[in-house]
Sequence to fold (140 residues):
Amino acid sequence: MKKFLILNGPNLNLQGKRDVEIYGTTTFEEYTSQLKERYADKADIDYFQSNIEGELINAIHQSVGCYDGIILNAGGYTHTSVAIRDAIAAVSTPVVEVHISSILAREEFRHISMIAPVAKGSIMGFGLDSYRLGIESLLD
Fold:
């Protein structure tokens, strides 16, 4: 049985309430429950969200030896955080970058991901299903 960490960055605690035309109305707690049920026989899934960059970095560091992979939506830190990028590069835990919306279809400043070059891969634009696709990519 594999063990994965879904790691969400800033403002994702507002999923289901914020910009519902972009992100939808399902809360992340509801969706996480669905994922845990769907993958109950294949993977243990933990979830952590923080609006604080250092807490995300600590979670990445602490993943080594605990998780078989991280599904990371760094939110706005995707475009700005060299520190999160360096944390991913420093650990052996594979990280799949996910985004609910397509960052390439949004404002130009969102087009560049600091994380993509050090991630196993990037999945975006499939709504919350991006997380499921991230899990699938780590199961294979």
